[in-house]
């Protein structure tokens, strides 16, 4: 089973600051997803990255997939209190005999708090 | 409804009791997944259905855990003789089709928080 290591585990910063969180693996990712989870809710998909070196932007969030597809980062510019949440990276579990992608393996997440 | 719903949202059980957790997926979604999320951790895969067929139950932690989806829509996760280590949030997710291309987007419900005393 491929383990996903996320860092830092906890991060608390002031509104307006920039931050970067990381997701790393000892093996190559086929693709990688980033989710945000707010308290009392399920994870919500932010982005899927597939190609090594790929960069995707979602408003103030910038997602990067490493060239070797073994790492990914999420950078937030000018963080807002609404960015507070648990940021999770995930990848597909190995496909079952029936084919297709069957469930996700998640990292432990980065708990992000943006203080006003 | 528009999204995945789960009930109850909160459940307190005494050790040894049986519990049943319900998931209503998005209408028409073929694939359904259950995950267990311990406090402060990421979700961990439990089991997967394609329509009514349970294709993978390798993540179920013990034989006290049982899931079903008899008509290919609503699913129930049952835990027998609950133990304190079963305390967690149980998340359900659904996906439109078995083969969802590059996005592989699963839509998650809000979860059921189970506390075993």
Provide a quick synopsis of the model.
Chain A has 116 residues and is mainly β. Helices cover 0% and strands 52% of the residues of chain A. In chain B, strands 2, 4, 5, 6, 9, 10 and 11 form a seven-stranded mixed beta sheet that branches. A four-stranded antiparallel beta sheet of chain B has the order 1-3-8-7, with no helix packed on it.
Description:
The complex is a heterodimer of chains A (116) and B (117). Chain A has 116 residues and is an all-beta fold. Chain A has no helices and 11 strands. In chain A, strand 4 (32-37) and strand 5 form a beta hairpin. The mean pLDDT of chain A is 90. Chain B contains no helices and 11 strands. In chain B, strand 7 (65-68) and strand 8 (75-79) form a beta hairpin. The interface between A and B is medium-sized, with 28 and 29 residues.
Mean pLDDT across the residues of chain A is: 90
Assembly state (oligomeric): heterodimer
Alpha-beta content class of chain A: mainly beta
Strand content of chain B: over 45%
What is the overall shape of chain A? globular
Main beta sheet strand tally, sense and closure of chain B: 7 strands, mixed
How many whole angstroms does the radius of gyration of chain A measure? 14 Å
> What structural class is derived from the secondary structure elements of chain B?
mainly beta
Task: Give me the count of strands of chain A.
Answer: 11
Q: What fraction, in percent, of the residue positions of chain B are helical?
A: under 10%
Please write out the topology.
The complex is a heterodimer of chains A (about 120) and B (about 120).
Chain A: E1 4-7, E2 10-14, E3 19-25, E4 32-37, E5 44-49, E6 55-58, E7 61-65, E8 71-76, E9 85-92, E10 104-106, E11 110-115
Chain B: E1 5-7, E2 10-13, E3 19-24, E4 31-37, E5 44-50, E6 53-56, E7 65-68, E8 75-79, E9 88-95, E10 107-108, E11 112-116
């Amino acid at each position: 089973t491929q383990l996903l290591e996320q860092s830092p585990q906890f991060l608390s910063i002031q509104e307006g600051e920039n931050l970067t969180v990381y997701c790393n693996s000892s093996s190559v990712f086929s693709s990688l997803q980033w989710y945000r989870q707010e308290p009392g809710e399920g994870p919500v998909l932010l982005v899927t990255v597939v190609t090594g070196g790929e960069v995707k932007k979602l408003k103030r969030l910038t997602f990067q997939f490493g060239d070797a597809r073994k790492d990914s980062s999420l950078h937030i510019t000018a963080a807002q209190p609404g960015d507070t949440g648990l940021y999770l990276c995930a990848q597909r579990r190995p496909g079952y005999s029936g084919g297709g992608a069957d469930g996700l393996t998640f990292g432990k997440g980065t708990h992000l708090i943006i203080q006003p | 409804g528009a999204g995945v719903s789960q009930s109850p949202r909160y459940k307190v059980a005494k050790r040894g009791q049986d519990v049943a957790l319900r998931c209503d997926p998005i209408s028409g979604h073929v694939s359904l997944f259950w995950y267990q999320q311990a406090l402060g951790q990421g979700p961990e895969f439990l089991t997967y259905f394609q329509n009514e067929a349970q294709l993978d139950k390798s993540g179920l932690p013990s034989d006290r855990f049982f899931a079903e989806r008899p008509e290919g829509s609503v699913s129930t996760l049952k835990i027998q003789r609950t133990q304190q280590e079963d305390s967690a949030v149980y998340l359900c997710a659904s996906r439109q089709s078995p083969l969802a291309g590059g996005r592989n987007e699963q839509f998650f419900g809000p979860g059921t928080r189970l506390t075993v005393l």
